[in-house]
Amino acid sequence: MSRPTAAFFDLDKTIIAKSSTLAFSREFQAGGLISRRAMLRSAYAQFVFFTGGADHDQMDKMREFVSQLCAGWDVATVREIVHETLTTIVEPLVYDEAVSLIEEHRAAGRDIVIVSASGAEVVEPIGQLLGADRVIATRMEIVDGRYTGTIDYYAYAEEKARAIEHLAETVGYDLSECFAYSDSVTDVFMLEVVGHPFAVNPDKELRRTATERGWPVLSFVRPVALRRRIPVPPAKPTIAALAVGGAVAAGGVLWANRRRRDHGA
């Protein structure tokens, strides 16, 4: 009998059109959670990410900025608010081409696995909406029900490849017959461990690497509201825990909602 196979997808600029970690900057600023200066810093980072990708140094700075921002937030509240606001903030950013590709892999009998350095509070609900079988994402340390601001597990660069290899050993995937998709040169390690790597909306370095190695290059350009594109499937269990991006998102929305209630809005 043939071994099972999977399609591994990065999230930001591969499945969705923005950085999921930075997508909530306006909500933070409107709710008074962060300063205008911090909001502009996030907006600039989003621009750099979208136009040219983020290298290792930029990703490290982004990780430090976001993890410090969410220190002390209540975990249960974060989870609740993210699920309430996901459809208005992140869901409309999903690429139509990515949804079609996911459907093709599912029809071929492959598992769908999202592998992202962004936070599981955002990544996991998106995975559920897409019908993903598993999710791997960054986790924040939790003490007494609150985030400490320390990263417990960072699903980034080489660690993505290690996580995929560990999952393959656990599930039995034949990696030589698996597929992987990403936009960033930081995910070369993830692309190298499968037999069918694809560069999606690649940054300059990944495009160069893809050309040198003969990897196909795909262009995704049509964001679509996910609920209009496909029926929402039942939630599936994932292997991710807690994380950076969703924690920041939820905190900003929570603060804004509380201010509105306090002012009778």
TrEMBL record:
Keyword set, alphabetical order: Hydrolase, Magnesium, Membrane, Metal-binding, Transmembrane, Transmembrane helix
Protein name (record): HAD-IB family hydrolase
Protein family per UniProt: Belongs to the HAD-like hydrolase superfamily. SerB family.
GO MF term (any one): hydrolase activity
Record-linked Gene3D superfamilies: HAD superfamily/HAD-like (3.40.50.1000), SG protein - dephosphorylation function (1.20.1440.100)
Database matches in Pfam families: HAD
SUPFAM superfamilies in alphabetical order: HAD-like (SSF56784)
Residues spanning the membrane: 238-256
Segment forming the signal sequence: none
